[in-house]
Amino acid sequence: MRKGAKTREYIIMQAAELFNQQGYAGSSISDIMQVTGLRKGGIYNHFESKDELALEAFDYAISRLSRRYAEAIKGKTSAIDQLISIVSIYRNIIEDPPLKGGCPLLNTAIESDDAHPALRERARHAMNQFLKFIRIVINRGKRAGQILSSVDAESVSIYIVSTMEGGVMMSQLYHDSTYMQRTLENLTSYIESLRT
To answer: Gene3D superfamilies given for it (predicted)?
Structure first.
C-alpha cells in the first residue's frame, strides 16, 4: 500500500472513532486534526470535504461491525446458535464496544435524522443490510428445520435488532452494561423459543 493510501486509511480510522464518540456535528475539523496529528491541508489532500470523510468513516465503522458478526457465526451450524452469537457481540458493550463510542449504526441513525441526508441514507442502507442478514439466518434455519416454520423472518429480524439497539442505548445512557446483559438474557430466551 502506498504512503498516500495508508494516510487516507489512517484518517478514516481515526475519524470513525471520533465521529462515533462525538457525533458528526460535534466534531470539528480541528478535532479531526488533533486525533490524526495532521494539518488541515493534509486532511483535505485526501478528502474534498468533511462530508466525504464522514461517509467513508461510517462505511469503515460498519465494515468493522460486519466483520464482528461474521466472526461470531463462524463455525456455528445451527441458525439459533448463530442468532445468539450475533446478539452476544453486545454483551459487554461499554467495556468492549465494536468501535469506541458504541454502536456506529445506532449513533449515526440518531444523529443524521434530517441534518445530514447522505449519512442518513448510508445508515438506512446499513440497517437494511443488517436486517437482511438476520432474515437470511432465520430463513436458512427454517429450511433446515432448526427454526419453527411459522416464524415470520421479517418481524423477528425487526424485533431482534430493535431490542438489541434499545439495550445498547440504555447501556450507553447509563454507562452500565447491565442493561444490555439483561436485554440479551431475555432476547436469548426469545430466540431459543423459536427452536423446533
So the answer is: Tetracycline Repressor, domain 2
- Gyration radius from the chain CA atoms: 18
Q: Which residue has the cell 458493550?
A: 93
What digits encode the pLDDT tens for the residues 33-64? Answer: 999 999 999 999 999 999 999 999 999 999 99
Looking at the structure, give the CATH architecture of the domain made up of residues 58-192: Orthogonal Bundle (1.10)
Residue with grid cell 468513516, as numbered in its chain: 57
151 phi, psi to nearest 5 deg: -70, 130
Domain positions in the chain are 58-192
Secondary structure of 126-179 in HEC code, one letter for each residue: HHHHHHHHHHHHHHHHHHCCCECCCCCHHHHHHHHHHHHHHHHHHHHHHCCCHH
Cβ neighbours of residue 26 under 8 Å, at least 6 residues apart? none
Amino acid of residue 195: R
Cβ within 8 Å of residue 111, ≥6 positions away: 23, 24, 25, 119
Total H helices, total E strands in the chain = 9, 0
Whole-number Å distance between alpha carbons of 134 and 130: 6
Q: How many CA atoms lie within 13 A of 148 on its CB side?
A: 10
Phi/psi region, residue 96 (left: phi>0; alpha: psi -120 to 50; beta: rest), is beta
pTM score above 0.85? yes
